[in-house]
Amino acid sequence: MAAALVYGLGGRFFTREFYRAQAALAAEQPQAGGGRLSLSFDIDYPEDARALPELCDLLAQLGLTCSFAVIGKLVEAYPAEHRKLVSAGHELLNHTYSHPDHEIFHPHESFDDLALSAQKEQIERCHKVCQDILGASMTGFRAPHFGNVTGRTFYQALNELNYSFSSSLTAAASPSFGLPFRAEEGILEFPVTCCPRHPFAVLDTWHALRKSGARHTGKGELRSLVLEAAALVSESRGYLNLYLDPRDVLEFEEAKSALTGLAESPVRLASITYAGYLQLLRDNPSLG
Ligand SMILES: [Zn+2]
User: Fold this and answer.
1) Distance from the CA of 265 to the center of ligand 1, in angstroms?
2) Domain 32-281: which CATH number of 3.30.70.20, 3.50.50.60, 3.40.630.10, 3.20.20.370
3) pTM tops 0.85, yes or no
4) Which residues, including other chains, have CB under 8 Å from residue 66's CB and lie 6 or more apart?
5) Distance between Cα 186 and ligand 1 center (Å)
6) Most C-beta atoms within 10 A of its C-beta, which of 4, 33, 60, 260?
7) Tell me: the pLDDT tens digits for 236-257?
């Protein structure tokens, strides 16, 4: 109990200082902050792919254009569901062909441990599948099990494949306090927002609702944390890069409530895709 209290207070303190630092950096680099919002989903499981048509309808009702990280194998298995994303105008991110360290598609081998050539092959194969089946061309990437990636060779792989951006790190692990920043090999990295109470954990439905020992299962808790993060970003003129699981938005009323709360919030953040953001930042020397 005492440890939880100390940790809780530590989380709040870290979050306050983190957004203070984000505000200071955003003041220096207003084009990197500006109070913007990106929303992304990873289609990691068949259940996620099957949730896409209903999720697309919900996002259309809420007026949200989002980014979806896609796995080549699931695009092959669920082409119609993925085509719906493209026709609805959502952005696609390359999430590799078989998602190394995926219990169904590619067990017992992490993306992090693959040689550069094997990482490139994973990215290229997903790229080709999306071109052939969806007619979509991607320039952005999300690493499998993002947030746990320790090696950075994928930036070299992305550069060699003419990709331009990635969203594969947590805000807590970013040198930019959550703002987009220029990572290795000229790749622009969009860090994913963390939980205001547990600032080293991604503020997602896994952390809040699904995992064993989920941290924010109370009624309205996830919604209020998302709105709190939005208010912090609005105040810092920074960046909210929120991540959700597709099937969770349909399975958990609390997740749907968080999403609708954000869409209807009086806190106005400018919604933007990663590619749209990249266009704004392109050739900006201050992002060094
Ligand atoms: Zn939390």
Assistant:
1) 20
2) 3.20.20.370
3) yes
4) 38, 39, 40, 41, 59, 90, 91, 273
5) 32
6) 33
7) 999 999 999 999 999 999 999 9
